[in-house]
Amino acid sequence: MTEMFEDRSFKRLTSKFPIPMLKYLRVQHLMAKPYPTKIEAGDDTRQFLDYVIEIAENKLFDLEFHSSFLTINHLGRYGTYKINLRIDSKKCVYQCILCTGDPEKSKRNLKINENEEVKLNIIFTLEDDADEKIEILEEIIDNNKKLTDTDIELIYLTVALYMKSKLTKSELLLKIADLTNKVEGLTEEEIREIKIFQKAFMKKFISDDDELKGEIDKMISISELELLKELFPEETRILVAGEKEKGIEEGIEEGIEEGMEIRSVEIAKNMKNFGNDYEYISTITGLSLEDIEKL
User: Fold this and answer.
1) I want to staple 47 with a disulfide (CB 3.0 to 4.6 A). Which of 30, 35, 39, 64 is the partner?
2) Is the pLDDT of residue 232 over 80?
3) Beta carbons of 60 and 52 less than 8 angstroms apart
4) CA dihedral defined by 133, 194, 261, 279, rounded to 10 degrees?
5) What local confidence, expressed as pLDDT, does residue 82 receive?
6) Taking the model in full, what pTM does it have?
């Protein structure tokens, strides 16, 4: 199953903010720390993995992300992984699927046989109300309260984008981006993570001709170098290191642009090989449909 752009962003955020995400998912936990995640099962190749944390002694929490509606095949895949993780770790495994797709079209139960079904723990973000979360954030700002990396409201600055709302997608993003800039107590790293997520949302859902796009872009502005570091850390390190040796400051920007273009072509080729729609490939990579056709 091809990984979607917002899946990748959710994974990054979850690794940064595990406690508020667990609170949002209503998980009762004693502690939260990353768990070694290379899982082997028999002669199979490495199993898929999104995010696993240790919530208590001998207890693991496996968080799976899904950005389209859920099918039986998806549920079977997640269920199989949970079993593999439990066998490999020899620990009790709690699993939750965070789905930003349509809950009406999604399957919720995994059929084992004619008489038995397993009900999986699935959180559909669209069943939650973004407008209520915005009111909570506005109250925090109005009362000059500060957010910390353990406050559940931190997650509202991102997950609320995938909740139901009376606002359009661009209006919702603009509102949340404005609140991100106003709220106090967040570190620069936390703000950057949130804005990278918002940039991913804008790239996928906001068209270039949307009248709010320019205003949104200013709200979530971060340097292209910082964005590149987050998306492609190794490529950025090589580019910047090479240009610093030359001592040519202008060359850094040129090298970054060239590196991003090369990387975009590589990503587009891979997505094309996996059978992704050309318009979707164009949205992710920034390449034109004509360029993608020629690859």
Assistant:
1) 39
2) no
3) yes
4) -10
5) 87
6) 0.71
